[in-house]
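Exercise 7.
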Amino acid sequence: EDFVMTTDDTEGDPAILERSGSATEDFGFFQIAEGIHSVFENVSLQNGTQIAIRQVGATANDTTMQILGCEFIDNVTVNTGPAGIAVSDSGTGASQLIIRDSLFDGHIGKAGSGGAVFCGMKTCLIDASSFKSNRIISNGLGAGVHSSAAELYIVGSDFYQNRSTGGSALYFDGGFIGIGKSTFAENLTTSTAIPTYRGTILVAAGTAQLTHLTIVDNRVFDSDTDPGCALHQNGTGSIAISASIIYDNQAIDVSFADR
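Solution. The predicted structure, written as tokens, is:
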């Protein structure tokens, strides 16, 4: 790897970094150049005032980033974008983002897409991770994750109490998405500002294959008659789902909702 950030605590407690970034910067703690292979392990990034980790440049072909056993807590974006991680590599190589055993809690993204994470790599893998209480102020999509990756895989992860104007937990506009053994609960979409983008899981492009999911107690506040609360397919996207529990999701007319 070209860059490694990890704890030197022999007991394995996270190395905590707090309060970094300013209104004149577009990154909070780390800015990683394109083409770099970076690893963040057992690190806690908290209370930042810009994107916690931002990768710059987008055509290096082989940029990779691994987030292993990390915590991203209460980071806020002053400018546009997500508050946790923003990575993108549009080259033809094997660029990838791997998030494993990590927590994203309490992030506030601003406009654009992605409250906690934006991934534009060729491949994005999210494994055994939690996205909780992330939101986007102004108009934005995907409070937990916005992925434009050619391939997105999510397994054994949970999305709780995230909020945005569309795709409250997840917004995907890439090529293929596969999600398995994951939970989406108590997420909130307020989609009147972007009326064609709704749902807890929003697929705007590409193909989604979903299996063994639990999608419960999610809400959409919308004046539209068919907002798609649990799942919403928009544009050229398609969704296939099997062996899943979808229960008590409600689309509520904003004319009568007690908000």
